[in-house]
Design brief:
Layout (H helix, E strand, L loop, with lengths): L6 H8 L3 H8 L7 H14 L5 H8 L4 E5 L11 H14 L6 E4 L14 H4 L3 E6 L9 H8 L3 E3 L11 E4 L1 H14 L5 E5 L5 H16 L9 E3 L4 H11 L7 E5 L5 H11 L8 E6 L12 E4 L2 H16 L8 E4 L2 E3 L21
């Protein structure tokens, strides 16, 4: 019959106390290097693994660094590229230190919005990563904050200024995009807007409106189309916007990073990119462009801001700093990016499928 190895077995076989074994496997100081090496060799030889849940119960503390998603994947369809990047960052920052990582992949299965924080409220997460944009109506992030655990959200929330976040200034991105086109002489600028009813979507409209107001240009809701992440939907919305012959410039803040969808929309509207209408596209890639015909691109360093947020979360968790985290990266306007390679589907931040 299989017998589970315990720290008492490790202690007996190495001739040290169970307390010393506990210090070694929990990476604590106060153990001679020679002793630490001897214990670790025995741990490896016997294939010992501590019981994370027993340890958690004894310490009356949660055990895992938790990752949860504040929006259903059907609404915010993160791509495999995003998940690969996230897994590698979590491994680099937490996994290498011995932390357990727990993903709550099904927080919406029971049909309750508050389920996205169930790992916190069920006392499973010792810290929490809120991976994704927050809805304008969100009330859960504040409840997570009130528990006192270290956490970081990959997005801001206007209704809760004390939120711990790491994100990009989308309002500034919309502002500099609109101002760039205004400075080129455009007076009728259309906006393709993603994340409707989410904080990043509201920030897009606010920055766009601010730039128009500063230039004494009228703001019209008709010049904005909300879009989901489907490539076909992008093409349809562009066609609708460009049916107005007064529109001479388009800001693609859809986040789809899909040049073919943009071209298809122009084709359906009987318009030509760069001739009767200019395009400025947003991208999450530090290198690469959405389409070569664009006048400019705005780079949103989302991965970079999130990485810094995760680094700070690790420090908060280790007691090396106090929260909340406040990381806000600036977007970068790039007029030279048109010479770079166009972004391939496998590198996109979100899935841009055809419906």
């Amino acid at each position: 019959m299989f017998k589970k190895i315990t720290i008492y077995d490790i202690a007996r076989m190495t001739g040290v106390s169970a307390k010393t074994v506990s210090k070694v496997i929990n990476f604590k100081d106060g153990v001679k290097e020679e002793t630490r090496k001897k214990v670790l060799e025995m741990v490896e030889k016997l294939g010992y693994h501590p019981n994370i849940f027993s340890r958690s119960l004894r310490a009356n503390q949660p055990a895992c660094v938790g990752v949860t998603f504040p929006a259903p994947i059907e609404i915010i369809p993160f791509s495999p590229n995003f998940f690969l990047w996230l897994f590698m960052e979590l491994y680099r920052i937490f996994g290498k230190k011995g932390d357990y990582i727990c993903f709550d992949m099904f927080p919406y299965e029971l049909g309750k919005v508050e389920n996205y924080a169930r790992g916190v409220f069920d006392n499973l997460f010792k810290s929490c990563i809120i991976a994704g944009p927050l809805a304008l109506s969100d009330i859960i992030a504040k409840r997570i904050h009130e528990t006192g655990i270290p956490y970081v959200a990959f997005g801001r929330l206007e209704s809760f200024s004390n939120l711990s976040y790491a994100t990009v200034d989308y309002e500034k991105a919309a502002y500099i995009s609109t101002k760039f086109l205004i400075d080129k002489g455009h007076k009728h600028i259309a906006l393709l807007q993603a994340f409707h009813q989410y904080q990043p979507g509201m920030e897009r409209i606010r920055g766009y409106k601010k730039a128009l107001e500063e230039a004494n240009l009228p703001f019209s809701e008709r010049n904005i189309k909300h879009v989901n992440f489907g490539a076909r939907n992008v093409a349809i919305r562009i066609q609708q916007l460009l049916s107005d012959p007064n529109i001479t410039a388009l800001i693609d803040s859809s986040g789809t990073e899909n040049g073919e969808a943009i071209r298809e929309g122009f084709k359906r509207a009987g318009r030509t990119i760069g001739k009767d209408c200019e395009v400025l596209s947003w991208t999450y890639e530090s290198k690469g462009c959405i389409l070569h015909e664009a006048s400019a691109h705005v780079w949103l360093p989302v991965r970079e801001s999130a990485s810094e947020g995760l680094e700070l979360l690790a420090k908060w968790l280790e007691g090396k700093m106090e929260g909340p985290i406040k990381v806000l990266f600036n977007p970068i306007l790039d007029t030279e990016r048109i010479h770079d390679r166009e972004i391939e589907p496998s590198y996109r931040f979100f899935d841009s499928y055809m419906e």
